[in-house]
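Lab channel / #folding
Pinned by the channel admin:
"Please post every new chain as: sequence first, then the structure tokens as a reply. Keep commentary short and put observations after the output so the thread stays searchable."

First post following the new format, from NK:
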Amino acid sequence: MCDTLVAVRPGRVLFAKNSDRNPNEAQFLDWQPRQDHPSQARLRCTWITIDQVETTYAVLLSRPFWIWGAEMGANEHGVVIGNEAVFTDQPYAPTGLLGMDLVRLALERSETAQGAVDVIIGLLDRYGQGGGCGHEDPGFTYHNSFLVADATVAYVLETAGALWAVERVTSGVRSISNGLTIPGFADHAARLPTWVAQARRRRSITEACPADSVGDLLAVLRTHGPRGPSPRFSPVGAKAAPCMHAGTGVRATSQTTASWVAELRPDGDHRHWATGTAAPCTSLFLPVRVDEPLDLGPEPTDRFDPATRWWRHELLHRAVLSDPERLLAVYADERDALEARWLAERPDPAAAVVEGDAAASRWLDAVRAAHGPDRRTRRARQFWSARDQRAGLPEPRAAGAGSPG
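Reply from TO:
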């Protein structure tokens, strides 16, 4: 499950997305340069091979480790895209392009938001969408909706198998949350899985966001909804809020594994903020640029590796989970103040990584020192213990297990 929103304002466009996937499905920031390709070259995507184009543009992607495509990203022309799973009355193809493949392909091949929409539609018509989308459940599949934006306009593109519909957004706030929303086309929604995904409830939260600043978007991606500052157990779990936590409900197996906020400006002074880590409520948004690759360690997998930034942060994230309301308060004020300073001063991204890593190391030590009884339900403890064992993760609160980045 995911939440994506855009705010089209005079002189700029704001974009934000939480990517929700399985808890051990590490995601990382992937810089790809502009490249020229031989004529008649072929390209291997996640499940199928397609024709390559002569030139692909530079992109920065937030990418699940095992997928060729991306959950969200931006290109050198200031186009940003996020996609969502949607469940429809149309048949699901056993193979094809994943929605994540379509995000990356559109970013690599377009100079405007309208151009990106045209790329996705053309690829859908030619190759179709399909194939396994899940990490824990390889057979899990879905159709896709997209929120596409540049510095002047945004588009909602919704699909149901080979069918599609587009809505142009020229002002105000618009969001998508795992449900079809375009009038008329929404009739293709499969009602039960859309309800289980709590699509309408989450969308009501994101569309109520003031969305006048980057800070507003950071806050809405971190929200757990009206029930309080930390996730709560319920029959549907934390699916009812943008900051999603696995293990909080009977069917709550998705976790926010990465987050992104962008401010797009007509003068080309685009600004991007990405976690590259799970659970935005526990994470730090780093300033990043499409044209400035950063050394964030090796690409992660679904196994714990302290050399990777995503897994180092899991030590902090999973330690906080034992009593989130109390333990997050240990460092949230310092984290928020650091981000506020970066928003005001726009630091060099490489310097911000160093400063952020040092801060995160302090926060892990402070959380470990403050730990107490585990306040989660037995179901939640069992859920996370199983995922920790699968990943080979050391006890999250054990001293000497490493420091988060």
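NK: Residues 2-295 form a domain with the Penicillin V Acylase; Chain A fold (CATH 3.60.60.10).
TO: also worth noting, The chain has one domain: 2-295.
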